[in-house]
UniProtKB/TrEMBL annotation:
Signal peptide: none annotated. Residues 225-327 form the Fe2OG dioxygenase domain. Belongs to the iron/ascorbate-dependent oxidoreductase family. This is Fe2OG dioxygenase domain-containing protein. GO terms for molecular function: metal ion binding; oxidoreductase activity. It comes from Ceratodon purpureus. InterPro entries: DIOX_N, IPNS-like_FE2OG_OXY, IPNS-like_sf, Oxoglu/Fe-dep_dioxygenase_dom, Plant_2OG-oxidoreductases. SUPFAM superfamilies: Clavaminate synthase-like. Gene3D superfamilies: B-lactam Antibiotic, Isopenicillin N Synthase, Chain. It comes from the Eukaryota. Keywords: Iron, Metal-binding, Oxidoreductase. Pfam families: 2OG-FeII_Oxy, DIOX_N.
Length: 423
């Protein structure tokens, strides 16, 4: 192979690769050779970096933005005269798009600027220095830098990341898991994430109030009791000589209640709605809010988690910061009881959040069904003369037993085995 793929592949060749099942070894070798010449990857062939041809057909340029994705001035939440209309705007955006941007959120510009500056400075450091705090699961280092090679092997993403748990306290890693440079990195991250946590909590509370009518406040304080998992991730998407071949981040839903993203002005974040992809316009001072899959389960599909992805490009690198609020690891993720009655059966099986999160993570790695699909009750088969699952049948704090029509109490496995719930 004489030439790198970046210049060698013509439109016809690309189509030929498509038709010969992208991902075969020869295609992968071409790409890997090219990737190797650009980065420090030493690993063997791995075709997972290639975007499948079906997905490639949906790609839209990183600078193509959709002006209909709502941008909401949430200072109205603090103003009696505008509160009602602001709440309506947030709820409508959540219901219609599952994503919106907020401005006038009360986080000073300086906090956002510091945040993006330390992230940029971190990613600009030499690779060897970043590697000093690389994640290393085998050695118990679960937080830190995620180099290209790690993501390459797992999620087929054209990006580098750095990620930490900020809450609950007992899961926060020791100081030496954080980078020593740039100075002020940790403080800038924590300042933004702590301040923005209260904005996210407010949005979550009003979404729950709107769906559950009376008990949104109670539900959100139950979820945000200090043990909730708050995570931080900064992502760096390098320029890519052949951006249509790879994805900065493959399409996914976050396994969060709600996620916030600060993005620089490059563009590349895209969301799916009704089978179409739309670019989220970088907006100065704005924070992007996304609904996660836990909120979808909790609201029994009244609100939907939004599928999103990141595309890369050949001209500008991109950086973003994500922070999400998730339940605590032993919270039972299940549709809220307030939403369930004989006419509205639950759409999801209950499970502990830690299991839910792992399922979602594995789905990303294995490219299989995400947690929503795995726990969805697919067929509540009344024809089997069984009752469908009702929340009063779920023992509080131990939601592993289900009453069925003939009065028996079954554990989850038997319940599934009997075909009441398609597994
Ligand atoms: O980089 C972005 O804008 C999105 C990142 C993202 O979706 C994630 O970290 O889950
Ligand atoms: Fe995401």
């Amino acid at each position: 192979m004489a030439h790198p793929i970046w210049v060698a592949v013509t439109g016809d060749e690309m189509r030929a690769m498509d038709s010969s099942a992208v991902g075969n070894e020869a295609d992968a070798r071409l790409l890997i050779e090219a990737v190797k010449s650009k980065s420090a990857i030493q690993s063997a062939l791995d075709s997972r970096l290639l975007v499948p041809s079906s997905e490639r057909l949906t790609l839209i340029p990183h600078k193509e933005f959709c002006n209909d994705i709502p941008v909401i001035d949430i200072s109205g939440l603090l103003d009696d005269g505008r509160r009602g209309e602001t709440i309506a705007a947030v709820v409508n955006a959540a219901a219609n798009w599952g994503i919106f941007q907020v401005v006038n959120h009360g986080i000073p510009d300086l906090v956002l600027e510091n945040l993006m500056t330390v992230v940029k400075d971190f990613f600009s450091m030499p690779e060897e220095e970043k590697q000093l705090i690389a994640k290393d699961h085998e050695n118990g280092r679960l937080q830190g830098y995620v180099p290209f090679s790690q993501l390459f092997q797992k999620q087929a993403a054209w990006s580098n990341q750095i990620e930490y748990i900020l809450q609950p306290h007992h899961l926060v890693g020791p100081e030496d898991t954080w980078p020593a440079r740039p100075a002020g990195f940790r403080q800038a991250i924590e300042e933004y994430c702590n301040e923005f946590h209260s904005v996210l909590a407010k949005i979550l509370e009003l979404l729950l109030s709107s769906c559950l009518k009376t008990s949104g406040t109670r539900k959100s304080s139950e979820l945000l009791d200090g043990n909730q998992l708050q995570v931080f991730r900064a992502s760096y998407y390098d320029t890519c000589p052949q951006p249509e071949m790879v994805m900065g981040l493959r399409s996914h839903v976050d396994s969060s209640l709600i996620t916030a993203i600060v993005q620089d002005d490059t563009g590349g974040l895209q969301v799916e709605k009704d089978g179409q992809w739309y670019g989220v316009a970088p907006t100065p001072g704005a924070v992007v809010i996304l609904l996660g899959s836990v909120l979808q389960v909790l609201t029994n599909d009244m609100l939907k988690a939004v599928e999103h992805r990141v595309v890369v490009n050949g001209e500008s690198r991109r950086m973003s910061v994500t922070t999400g609020i998730n339940p605590s690891s032993n919270t039972i993720v299940a549709p809220a009881q307030e939403l369930i009655d004989e006419l509205h059966p639950p759409h999801y099986l209950p499970c502990e959040y830690k299991e839910f999160r792992i399922t979602n993570f594995e789905a990303g790695v294995l490219n299989s069904l995400d947690a929503l699909d795995q726990y969805r009750i697919k067929d509540q088969v009344p024809s089997l003369h069984h009752r469908t699952l009702f929340p009063e049948d779920i023992e509080e704090h131990n939601p592993t037993f289900y009453h069925v029509g003939d009065g028996r109490l079954l554990d989850l496995q038997s319940f599934i085995r009997e075909g009441i719930v398609a597994s």
